[in-house]
Design brief:
heterodimer; A: about 900 residues; FAD/NAD(P)-binding domain; Rossmann fold; 6 domains; 5-stranded parallel sheet; 42 strands; about 25% helix; globular; B: about 70 residues; two-stranded parallel ribbon; 4 strands; about 35% helix; about 15% strand
Chain lengths: ~900, ~70
């Protein structure tokens, strides 16, 4: 009998197949032990027939099992674990409650190695040929977390290429590299065996400097890749869909959510190896496509959620309930929770205190609701984690219990306490008590607040008429909403106009022409070419955007906005670009290939140089698409002339996912790959070849041989970086949304809100977010449409009550607040008493900038009033302290 | 009148085994798809082979590149 894990939803005990009764009709001890008579050993599988209009397949992936190859020693050597095992070892709910221990002796390993590409990027039987896309970065994460557990532990990563191709990955990689005692070693590594005494694992590897050597590690982590779901064949058969040669879903790169069967869609890692944000937005994307299909029956089968009536507690004496969370062991490993509970009982107005293993678990939240009702509580303090992720959940719990949801306070004893004071248990417990005492004091002063219901304008504005913008616009329009599509150029299409084929051989221009035709023919899509936004005002559900376009000035009212302004190709200043017309970028090469330009088709030698303009100090990120782009063009050149000498000079080949197959194919076709390092980049100069023809000579220092190799090239092709659109800054300030450190738009949450902004009602897709391949842009475009529909398909939207309010009498109209407001939520209005600041509560995000600068204290931030905050400070420091 | 006629059988469907969408798999992707569809006005059946939803993400300790808690 098991509970799956403490935070499992639903949290239900279940019996697995090893039950003696189920196997041999014996035992039945559990029936007698259960006081609630809850055990039914006679349950049988039940067949349920469901009739639905669409299906989304999101079965995920399975972890590669290294047991299929004996060479990894997994299962045979005790101290060899998989990446997933290690994840569990680090986790508070894991086998040793968050202690990383070796299986052989239950000691902390003092020297850990990671072996990358286990089961991935290999041509051998039992392994996968593709790149699993996630392992490089998850291994780096595990290194960082290992260092959090014990900063002394030396960590070694054996890798081939480090594929830090995603947003923020390159800096994450650098962060890992810069930790003390971390080695990245570029070498295939094999496990030789273990030391019979110490059970340390012996790893053999080779480096350019030292040749083959063996080294012992106390633990080895196999960075295992992603397999298709185990039963992919059964799944394919049941649903009548096709799978690809790897066992993942067969998808159309022009619409990766579509399976081979209409009405059945796919999201997440069954599309192919994807990471979490992509799994999230492909889910929203599949949702959007179901919405297109089933739009006519939207709302027919759903019922609205009804909360119990709210009791009025404004005049009641505060009755506080405090719930102290163990967070598995995340908190209780450091903070003495029972001692904290005992202490909190002594605090004024506290009528109930208890500890909970996970306050966020379903049963715990039910316990909170029951306790509130039973003991007539009117304030709740949750002493657990940061309010950032779970405050909304607990507010909902309060609403469920019939009290105003702003009567909640979260005392953060995890991030602010147990996590940062892991080594000071006593002091941490004392601090936890302080934090909870402050929270209790604040909760006494909390006021009930009302939220605002706003009407929602059903139209959407899409800024940018490239592939992402058009795809998103069509999906929203196909779900019954008007869409205003703005394009700054005279024609739709964006960067896709310059791309002619995809790596899997699709004709981009044919698809693009069809897409553009559908846009223009759609009665609900209104296209504005040569559009310039002059003003963007309003708020979620009710935006007003003023534009000028070829059709003259216009005012557009819309409920949602999608930013899809794309990105641009960097114009290189390196490698003679612009000085010698034999130096091209990949987009230029693609255009000339499409025209069968003789200078391209007749070339004898072509050298491609990767990472031009990025992965450097100016642009500290990877442009993600260039490695695959180079491989695609190299294969096309080889198809034209197999004798052509094609060289790709790279730093790390980042052909992640299934594109690895094309990398291997290029290698088989004789494309030469040579690695260079940023300390010694290639050089390009005009020269004469042995046969007397004028060429560009590219010299690259081979990192294995250590010597310079010169290549004669008729063309040098630069993998130029993808840089943010020139309009990004302006669009960002118009819509009050942020740009990240690289100049691309910054989504609301990297994992969980990948296609929306912190500013409600504004969504994001395509290369405006980060460089990406066309199928990925399509994924995100549908994803943004899906998220926009969760807003547009409702008549009203509710916004927060924790907003600012101006006390007009105290306001002297200085305008300091207007200047600091990030969201343009405050304006000065003329009154008989002069100018006064007025806050628009639906735009206000309650960030507290305005009330902090107000010289007269005229602005109150509700839910964070001076009284509430001062009560917290007073609770911390009952006696005034002397400032020296 | 016409709306009422449509509404009556629809009410019946809402009680029975009629739905708009089946989502197969309750990992992060299936959960997100279900939430979006439900918020956008569709009745969803979420089917999971294991005893709880959450999939692989629920087994992870933290997530890169922010190292936020995975739960």
């Amino acid at each position: 009998m098991h509970i799956y894990f403490a935070q499992a939803i639903p949290l239900i005990t279940y019996i697995d197949e090893s039950c003696l009764y189920l196997k041999e009709k014996k035992c039945r001890i559990c029936e007698g032990a259960c006081k609630n008579d809850a055990i039914d050993l006679h349950q049988t599988p039940e067949k349920i027939e469901l009739k639905v209009g669409a299906v989304i397949l999101s079965p995920g992936y399975d972890v590669f099992d290294p047991k299929v190859r004996d060479e990894y020693g997994y299962g045979r050597l005790q101290n060899v674990v998989t990446g997933m095992d290690y994840e569990r070892l680090m986790c508070a709910t894991g086998p040793y409650e968050g202690e990383i221990l070796r299986a052989s002796d239950r000691r902390h390993p003092h020297n850990v190695a990671w072996i990358q590409c286990v089961g991935s990027r290999r041509d051998t039987a039992g392994d996968n040929g593709y790149c699993s896309s996630v392992c490089c970065t998850y291994a780096q994460k595990q290194v960082i977390l290992t260092k959090d557990h014990n900063s002394e532990t030396p960590c070694t990563i054996f890798h081939n290429d480090v594929r830090a191709y995603g947003k923020g990955f390159e800096t994450f990689y650098q962060r890992t590299q810069q930790l003390p005692n971390v080695r990245f070693i570029r070498s295939y590594a094999s496990i030789v065996g273990e030391d019979p005494e110490t059970k340390n694992v012996i790893v053999r590897y080779a480096t350019a400097d030292e040749g083959v050597k063996e080294e012992q590690f106390e633990m080895v982590v196999l960075s295992v890749g992603l397999n298709p779901p185990k039963d992919y064949q059964g799944l394919a058969k049941k649903f009548g869909i096709e799978v690809n040669g790897h066992g993942f879903c067969q998808i159309d790169s022009a619409n990766p959510m579509a399976t081979t069967r209409p009405g059945i869609f796919v999201s997440g890692a069954f599309q192919g190896p994807l990471d979490i944000p992509e799994s999230v937005f492909t889910a929203s994307a599949a949702g959007a496509q179901c919405g297109e299909l089933l739009n006519s029956r939207r709302g027919r089968l759903t019922t609205e959620r009804v909360y119990p009536p709210e009791t009025d507690n404004t005049a009641a004496e505060p009755r506080i309930g405090v719930f102290v969370c163990h967070c598995g062991a995340n908190i209780s490993r450091v903070v003495d929770v029972p001692d904290t509970v005992a202490y909190v009982q002594t605090l004024p107005n506290v009528v109930h205190v208890q500890n909970q293993l996970f306050s966020c678990a379903t049963n715990s939240m039910k316990a909170i609701v029951d306790t509130v009702k039973e003991k007539s509580l009117n304030r709740v303090v949750i002493a657990a984690c940061s309010p950032r992720t779970l405050e909304a959940l607990f507010r909902d719990t309060l609403q469920e219990a019939g009290i105003n949801k702003y009567y909640l306070d979260m005392a953060n004893i995890r991030e602010h306490c147990s996590w940062c004071h892991a080594r000071e248990k006593e002091a941490a417990t004392a601090k936890a008590k302080d934090i909870v005492r402050m929270s209790v004091a604040r909760s006494i002063k909390l006021e009930p607040l009302q939220e605002f219901d706003l009407p929602v304008n059903r139209a959407a504005l899409v800024v940018g008429g490239g592939l992402a913008g058009m795809t998103c616009a069509l999906s929203i329009a196909d779900q019954g909403h008007d869409v205003y599509l703005l394009e700054k150029e005279a024609e739709l299409g964006g960067n896709a106009r310059r791309l002619h084929s995809t790596i899997d051989g699709k004709n981009v221009q044919a698809d693009l022409t069809r897409l553009i035709r559908r846009i223009y023919r759609h009665p609900a899509i209104h296209v504005y070419n040569e559009a310039v936004i002059t003003e963007a005002t309003g708020y979620i559900g009710n935006f007003v955007t003023r534009i000028t376009s070829e059709r003259g000035p216009a005012v557009i009212e819309h409920g949602a906005a999608v930013i899809a302004i794309g990105a641009e190709e960097y114009k290189p200043t390196e490698y003679l670009y612009g000085q010698d017309d034999r130096v091209l970028t990949h987009l230029e090469l693609g255009e000339r290939l499409a025209k069968s330009d003789a200078a391209v088709t007749g070339a004898q030698g072509v050298v491609m140089i990767q990472c031009v303009g990025c992965r450097n100090q100016d642009r500290n990120y990877c442009s993600r698409v260039c490695c695959s782009h180079s491989v695609k063009n190299a294969l096309q050149l080889k198809a034209i002339n197999p004798e052509m000498d094609v060289v790709i000079a790279f730093r790390d080949m980042r052909t992640y996912g299934f594109n690895e197959n094309y990398y291997r194919e290029a290698s088989h076709q004789g494309v030469r790959f040579i690695r260079w390092t940023p300390e010694d980049p290639p050089t390009v100069e005009a020269a004469e070849a042995d046969d007397g023809r004028a060429v560009l000579q590219v010299a690259v220092t081979d990192s294995i041989l250590g010597s310079k190799i010169a290549f004669d090239a008729d063309l040098v092709v630069l993998a130029a970086a993808i840089v943010p659109s020139r309009g990004a800054q302006e669009i960002a300030s118009l819509f009050k949304v942020p740009l990240g450190p690289d100049g691309f738009f910054q989504e609301g949450h990297v994992k969980l809100r990948p296609v929306e902004f912190a500013t409600d009602g504004v969504f994001l897709c395509g290369m405006a977010h980060y460089p990406k391949h066309m199928p990925e842009a399509v994924n995100q475009a549908y994803g943004a449409a899906g998220r926009a529909l969760t807003l547009l398909s409702n008549d009203i939207v509710t916004v927060s009550g924790a907003v600012c309010e101006v006390n007009e009498k105290q306001c002297m109209g200085c305008g300091a607040c207007v200047e600091v407001c990030t969201y343009d939520a405050i304006e000065l209005r003329k009154t008989r008493q002069g100018e006064k600041a007025v806050v628009n509560p639906v735009i206000c995000k309650g960030d507290g900038l305005c009330n902090a600068v107000c010289p007269t204290g005229a602005i109150v931030l509700k839910h964070f009033t001076d009284l509430e905050i001062e009560s917290q400070i007073d609770a911390l420091l009952p006696e005034p302290i002397e400032v020296q | 009148m016409e709306n009422q006629l449509i509404a009556q059988p629809s009410d019946g469907f809402a009680q029975g085994n009629f739905g708009d969408v089946i989502v197969v798999g309750g990992g992060i992707s299936g959960i997100q798809a279900s939430l979006d569809l439900a918020t956008a006005g569709f009745k969803v059946y979420l089917i999971e082979k294991g005893p709880a939803i959450g999939g692989h993400m629920a087994q992870l300790d933290k997530t890169y590149p922010t190292n936020d808690c995975s739960m």
